[in-house]
Amino acid sequence: MNSTYLDIIREGLWTNNPGLVQLLGLCPLLAISGTVVNALGLGIATIVTLVVSNSMVSLLREYVRPEIRIPVYVLIIASAVTAIELVMNAWFHGLFLVLGIFIPLIVTNCAIIGRAEAFASRNSVPRAALDGLAMGVGFTGVLVAIGALREVIGQGSLLDNAHLLFGEWGRELRIEIFPQEHGFLLALLPPGAFLAMGLLIAVKNLIDARLEAKPIPSGAPESQPATSHS
Amino acid sequence: MRFRTCTSPHLIPGHSVGGVMRQVLYALVPGTLAMTWFFGWGVLVNVSLAILFSVLFEALMVAARGRPVLATLGDSSAILAGWLFALAIPPLAPVWVLLIGTAFAIVVAKHLYGGLGYNPFNPAMVGYVVVLVSFPRELSLWPSPEGLTNASLSFLQTLQTTLTGRLPDGMEWDAITRASPLDMMRESIVSGQTVTEVTRSPLFGSFSQTEWEWAGNLFLLGGLWLLYRRVITWHIPVSMLLTLATVAGVFWVIDPDYFASPAFHVFSGAAIIGAFFIATDPVSAATTPTGRILFGAGIGLLTYVIRTWGGYPDAVAFAVLLMNMVAPTLDHYTRPRIFGHSRDGHG
Fold this sequence. Notes:
The complex is a heterodimer. Chain A is built from ten helices and two strands. Chain A has helices at 5-15, 26-31, 36-59, 69-91, 93-99, 110-118, 125-155, 163-166, 190-213, 223-228, and strands at 157-158, 175-176. In chain A, helix 4 crosses helix 6. Chain B is globular.
């Protein structure tokens, strides 16, 4: 309740990241992270869903009886996702076709209902919206990182098919690192997603362990709250 | 009068981990030499390079985990993993296949899970399956003995082929490779031939292609020596080969034109080396006697199922990995009764 806006942002991006720490929403995370563009497309859709659903849940939090809160959350999330699906079908039709069933499946992403239940239903609208944004960006970051890893190792390129997301000029964005036939096929197959995920979690834990082990500068005890709580 | 007292253990068995591993290495020698005889220098080149890479990765990982490097290398387990991996891949496979396979075997399958004794999966087979699903083309180029005789690839040319991934000038992959027996059987049956037509081809010996049969015989010899030395017990190899032969026999009796004979299945591909050397890995296999019998039977059954109806010609590696997953459960439910306890383990 007393968490500051900066705390909310830090929670979503790092300390309570939905992909790396809560391990929620793994189904789209593992299924759609084959390329950067797919990952980014689904990530943006998830961000919008999270912001909209968190704000709505927070707005209605005084009126919804606790007995029926879960169906109400699901209705809200499903309406948001349906709207996003229609928008993507209209303006990003190529990407819509590539992502397929995984756009409607955002409804079942546990990270979204988890934030509605755990945060939005007991916080004010601006805080809930910010939490949705931070969690969504954190989730998208992990999604894009896995997508980049798998795309580079699996097919030797980055931002392949970027025109699906950015329009025709996006074709120029494609970076080829090595020819596709030398790709490491395993990275594109489902096991590659699990391996990349495991490696990212390991790297995060390593960074956390390093940060914790770093000795606190002795002369500046009053600067400590400034870096971690302000 | 004083009695000398000391604590247990009172009898020290003569073999250490390193001793057991080295006996398995000795037992691999005859089969490896047979494969070298038939498939050329590539087998030896692969085995040496794979051992080199595995030991290197092992040393790096052990050092990174802050453990004594030389003491750990002394158990020879990395050498064994590298050797088994090298026998599974085609003799002229390029060097990066070896590098990636051994990296997955040692770094991912072994040390990320905690090192020797903690790995739930057989490291050599993890490495093999990773390269098999990732590089299907490189992993299907098995040379044929007569193709190699005509081409007479020297030791240096073989080394060059492995390192560069290209054959020396004037040679074609098509000329020196051919389908392995399991590949040939699968493709011929799909194209409408009967099993008898396939096995009547001059390439086949009594049961399978001659070179695979002989490699199998010599691995069998090594395996029997391991049984004699009591490095492995009879449960896993016997139950695996028996199940494979029985299931193959049932289908063979039903339709001998469509399903290959039990002897073909036992003497083709990795069945024998798998039964004696791979499935018996003391870390990732089941450990109770009943558990071992079920473990071996599961591998035999899965091998037949995946070979006959699956997407890949040989299946021993997949079968071993799948059964590795259930080995802890098998051990849990087949725990033998301890003297003085009731069957459910209480009182």
